[in-house]
Design goal:
7-stranded parallel sheet, Glutaconate Coenzyme A-transferase, alpha/beta, 6-stranded mixed sheet, 13 helices, about 425 residues, 2 domains, single chain, 26 strands
């Protein structure tokens, strides 16, 4: 067994794959080695590794593009350095050394008959970063599905490997409730047949996918693939028959599924591509049928979207939201922001449609949002004046908060 400390020098930077493709045994080795090696900068994306939520070595600096999964806890305790960026910019930042690129840790599939391994369910930024990384170490997980579309690599690519046979992390989620289903029905009502869908992960996106089951010949091009997408492919709802590019293929960068879902991937027309493809403006501009469906923490009466901060804690990210929202609104079919009209319970319940963004941070600009959807309806914003936008957004806010929102407009208009 090798010691990962042998591949690190003081001041080095390390990155690793995220989500289901995070090479947790290797990540844990790095965490154990930091005190021996000296200051280390690490870049992590979405993680469910519990060790990244607890006490970390003082000599370790953790960077990320947002506060996803366990990184929320690091943000809460002031241990997370967020690099705000479009997801499409991450490949270039690895290429220029703006993100750590001395050591890369990846989780790969077992070698195929050709002796090559695939990046499995985590091609995304990994495929772009590895081309600019000094040293690569791999976890060969025999339960990682072999996928197509991304790099196929010889074992000699890696300075060291460790073999495991462990289940991939499943996407944690709660069952969709009545509110989720009402929002999903409203979203589905403004998605046309033959649209190419981009959508995220979670209970609400899962409900939206369920609500799209009656549509025909949808396409799929997104940063993330879930069980719900696979189900629509299997039902013949997602066919990609009318996609302007990659017809007949569901294109993604990563997968967050159930264990059973991971086992279904190989039997479907799914290709995993690098972030430099899935999120590239030049690629997305060719999808005239693109409908982006994204979530938010809050939306103000101008239509500006906050999807990163809550009470000063990073719980989200810019991620691919702006990449897809801008493309869908500008050169595609429609950009949709879907969210519950309230958050919290009892006295701590408050509106997510707000006069001004509480975080003060705009994730997605108002000009990149065509529609805001809650359980109370659809606010179509394209072509509306500032005043008309506010009125339409108030109409989809929770009824008990509409009067306050209307007063806020009157107060702003008072000289």
């Amino acid at each position: 067994m090798f010691d990962v400390a042998d591949f690190l020098d003081p001041g080095d930077g390390v990155w690793w794959g995220q989500g289901s493709a995070e090479p947790e045994p290797l990540v844990n080795q790095v965490l154990d080695a930091v005190d021996r090696v000296g200051p280390i900068r690490a870049f992590s994306g979405l993680t469910w590794n519990e060790r990244l939520a607890g006490d970390l070595p003082e000599k370790l600096t953790v960077l990320s593009y947002g506060g996803l999964g366990q990184l929320r806890s690091l943000s809460r305790h002031g241990r997370l350095d967020v690099v705000p960026c479009h997801y499409s910019a991450i490949p270039r930042m690895f290429a220029t050394g703006q993100l750590p690129n001395d050591l890369g840790l990846v989780q790969v599939s077992a070698p195929g008959p050709d002796g090559l391994v695939s990046l499995g369910t985590g091609v995304e930024y990994v495929a772009d970063a590895l081309r600019h990384t000094r040293t690569l170490i791999a976890e060969i997980n025999h339960q990682m599905p072999r996928t197509v579309g991304g790099p196929q690599l010889p074992i000699s690519t890696f300075a060291a490997v460790v073999e495991t046979d462990r289940p991939l992390r499943e996407a944690p989620s709660r069952p969709a409730d009545a509110v989720d289903r009402a929002i999903a029905a409203n979203v589905a009502s403004i998605v046309r047949d033959r649209s190419t869908i981009q959508i995220g992960v979670g209970s609400l996106p899962a409900a939206v996918l369920d609500a799209l089951a009656g549509h025909t010949d949808l396409g799929f091009h997104s940063g993330m693939l879930t069980d719900g997408v696979l189900t629509l492919v299997e039902k013949g709802v997602i066919t990609g028959a009318h996609k302007e590019i990659d017809p007949g293929i569901a294109v993604t960068g990563a997968a967050l599924c159930s264990t059973e879902g991971y086992q279904r991937i190989a039997d479907q027309p799914v290709e995993f591509r690098p972030a430099s493809y899935t999120h590239a403006p030049a690629v997305l501009s060719r999808l005239g049928s693109l409908v982006s469906i994204n979530s938010a923490i809050e939306v103000d009466l101008l239509g500006q979207v906050g999807a990163e901060l809550a009470r000063g804690v990073h719980i989200g990210a810019v991620g691919g939201q702006v990449d897809f929202s801008r493309a869908a609104s500008l050169t595609g079919a429609r950009s949709i922001i879907a969210l519950r009209s309230t958050v919290g319970t009892g006295e701590r319940c408050h509106s997510t449609i707000v006069p001004t963004l509480a975080s003060g941070v705009v994730t997605t600009a108002r000009v990149d949002v065509d529609a805001v959807v809650t359980e109370h309806g659809v606010a179509m914003l394209t072509g509306c004046t500032v005043a008309e936008r506010a009125l339409r957004l108030i109409e989809v806010a929770a009824p008990e908060h509409r009067e306050h929102l209307q007063r806020s407009i009157a107060e702003q208009e008072t000289p």
